[in-house]
Amino acid sequence: MEDLFCDSSSLISLTGSCLDNVVYYLSDNFKLRFVIPPFVEYESITRPIASDLKQYSFSAIKIKKLLKDKVIVKVDKDVQRKTERILYLTNNSLFVKGKPITLLQKGEAEMISLASELGVNNILIDERTTRMMIEAPFRMKEHMEKEFGVNIMVNNGNLREFSEMVRGMQVIRSSELLIVAFENGFFNDFGDMKKDALQAALYKIKFSGCSISFDEISDYIKSVK
Predict the structure, then answer these.
(1) Strands 99-100 and 170-172: what pairing?
(2) Could you give the angle at the alpha carbon of 94 between the alpha carbons of 93 and 99, nearest 5°?
(3) Which of 93, 97, 184, 189 has an alpha carbon within 20 to 30 A of 84's alpha carbon?
């Protein structure tokens, strides 16, 4: 069984789009185990259910059911020191007017720490900033200067250390899980509408928080026979 470590953003994108069946489908057909650390459970399940975050409570209930059904598995391992180090490095790498920019949250850092500790390279993240920090950390300065129109200062030492910690990790988005499911029959019940169903699902998942672009959706749909 292959492990895929998940952060809150990806699980919320899938369940918020009513696509949690994709998780069951991939688990059953590919023996894929979706793994979360304790703080991701808190972010995506405990806090929304216990607080006034009503807009996320239905997603939280769906994620809780996935956990109850053992499709999602919580791994509780002490990675606090590494998590704190990742939070320090990432959140003290880029600066505007001398003030550090917060780039990662605790759930994301704990998930990366756990994956690193257990030697797992496949991680599921929908949030664009975290994905870019892993895939191309030294492009963050250019990206943020373009997005916000301000001069960004960089602590190259912190970026280099973080880059070494995540070396070899492969970031997957929920949209890519959806495409894999499509290519392996998940949408076949839609018959000759399955391509349209996929396109609609990709748009839905984009508007639920997945960082897939309109061009990416269009290009993939054009490639489908």
Answers:
(1) unpaired
(2) 110
(3) 97
Tokens of 208: 């639920």
DSSP 60: H
The alpha carbon dihedral of 140, 165, 124, 87 has a sign of: negative
Cα separation, 53 vs 44, in Å, equals 11
How high is the pLDDT of residue 222? 93
Query: Is pTM beyond 0.85 here?
Result: yes
Q: Does domain 1-225 have CATH number 3.40.50.1010?
A: yes
CA pair distance 114, 11, nearest whole angstrom:
17
